[in-house]
Specification:
seven-stranded parallel beta sheet; Rossmann fold; single chain; 14 helices; 486 residues; alpha/beta; nine-stranded mixed beta sheet
């Protein structure tokens, strides 16, 4: 095995809303302004933070999730994407030690140790002074094997407030306070709503927010010191055997592709309503031979001659007028589903395929592919990791396959046809109803479960095989029509 240095750091905090995303984006912007190459990662399954990190870094941010990918898979994913001649910024999630159990399994701390990365703590010091030192000292003593290399203070009320907290932390812990960021104006605050941060695609001032975040870090943080930490603690990581996206598909999907003279075409919804796609999911589909076609369900028509359709997650409920105004698209999707087009939909995609959506005492007619009525709720209906077993026939997954994913949805199915088929039994999580998910209709599969292709490579296999079978049947049908015509 080869060993290589990857300058890197983890930005963590004591909880959610500590300012990790703002600081991470600000650091990325500051590094780029100094001519450094940057690569961004998000710990956990979060799409929205990763979208902001992508905007700040100028390239797709990758998710590192030890629950979904396993520890070896997350480490390998980092090594394959990280820069050796720049700085790699990994934003943590929730609090530093928060994982799936009381031991903190799959926490940011465990990921930092896995990657041998120094941790920069981002601390919201609103209405606190010396107690902040106790919090940092507690983190240091809870896990002495963790390399906490410095602290950035956030939301200081004024200069004196920041100075008192800084002096207390440095005196008690011996760690350097690398910056004191004051309470920022609204222009520099990442926009949020009840679902969390708003995606950059939905926010017209996203570039301004990124610029202000970079300025806040440049003006108030010792950026050269952080660069030095990223390089000084860039302990070598042994490189395992290179993993190529799509390797798991060669036994089945690639053979299926060889039966056809041209690449198969897969459309996917991509606009402000549907933006939740892991880069690896799209890359592995392309590696398997799929030609991907981006489609706006609000403005486009469904392209001719598609062999599959992927409708990812997002916020269709926030853009209902534009979605509903494109009745031609909804009708085309409904007819394509009836014709047997392979359609994979998750979360927001499931909502789009529903008969209607109930929200704020109004009903909105949707694509009507699935005989379900969805209702928006005030509180999350499913939130966190989930695990499911494939126990019934469906278009994409073989029986017995275990799927690990995550869910975060405020909607739930309030009415469904009792004859509707479902193919997943959840052992963890909520799903669509009765601890079941994976609703099917012909070659349609819809679920609240978000999956990552590196964690569930069978997903790509299933899509390619189903699309290949669809192409084969269409070719046979067209040939029969041609013979009859003669």
């Amino acid at each position: 095995m080869n060993a290589t240095n990857y300058p890197r750091l983890v930005v963590s905090g004591l909880s959610g809303d500590s300012g990790k995303t703002m600081v991470s984006c600000g650091l990325l912007s500051a590094f780029r302004s100094k001519g450094l190459s940057v690569c961004a990662f998000k710990k956990g399954p979060d799409y929205i933070d990763a979208a902001w990190l992508s905007l700040a870094s100028g390239k797709p941010a990758r998710n590192l999730d030890t629950y979904l990918m396993g520890f070896a898979g997350a480490r390998r994913s980092f090594i394959e994407s990280a820069f050796q001649d720049g700085i790699n910024v990994i934003e943590g999630n929730r609090g530093l030690f928060d994982g799936v159990d009381t031991s903190g399994t799959h926490s940011t701390a465990e990921l930092a140790k896995l990657l041998k990365a120094p941790v920069i703590m981002t601390l919201n010091i609103s209405k606190v002074t010396r107690t902040a030192a106790a919090e940092i000292l507690g983190c240091m003593r809870l896990d002495p094997d963790l390399n906490i290399a410095g602290v950035i203070l956030n939301r200081a009320a004024n200069h004196r407030h920041g100075y008192v907290v800084k002096e207390a932390i440095e005196e008690v812990t011996g760690l350097p306070v690398l910056g004191v960021i004051p309470k920022l104006s609204s222009e520099a605050i990442l926009p949020s709503r009840h679902l969390g941060l708003i995606t950059p695609d939905e926010f017209e001032l996203s570039e301004i927010v990124m610029r202000e975040a970079g300025k806040a870090v440049d003006d108030n943080v010792d950026v050269p010191a952080i660069i030095e930490i990223a390089n000084r603690f860039a302990d070598q990581l042994e490189q395992s055997k290179p993993h190529t996206a799509g390797t798991s598909m060669q036994s089945s999907s690639h053979r299926a592709m060889e039966d056809y003279p041209t690449r198969m075409r897969m459309g996917y919804f991509k606009d402000r309503s549907f933006s939740f796609y892991y880069p690896e999911n799209l890359e592995m589909l392309e590696a398997a031979g799929m030609e991907l076609i981006s489609i706006s369900p609000s403005h486009d028509v469904l392209p001719d001659h598609l062999d599959a359709l992927y409708i990812g997650g997002g916020f269709p409920e926030m853009n209902l007028p534009s979605l509903i105004s494109n009745q031609e698209m909804m009708k085309a999707v409904r007819e394509a589903a009836d014709d047997g087009l392979p359609i994979y939909a998750e979360c927001g995609g499931l909502v789009y395929l529903a008969k209607c959506l109930e929200w704020n005492e109004k009903k909105y007619d949707l694509a009507g592919v699935l005989p379900i009525v969805v209702r928006m709720r005030e509180k999350p209906q499913g939130h966190g990791y989930c695990e499911a077993v494939v126990d019934r026939e469906n278009p994409f997954f073989k029986l017995g396959v275990t799927i690990r994913g995550h869910e975060f949805h405020y909607s739930s199915i309030c009415l469904h046809d009792p004859e509707i088929r479902s193919s997943l039994s959840l052992t963890r999580g909520v799903g669509s109803f009765d601890r079941r998910d994976g609703l099917t209709y012909k070659n349609v599969f819809a679920s609240y479960v978000h999956i990552h292709a590196l964690a569930t490579p069978q997903w790509v296999d299933g899509i390619v095989e189903c699309a290949a079978e669809y192409v084969k049947l269409n070719n046979e049908k067209n040939l029969a029509v041609s013979v009859e015509g003669k």
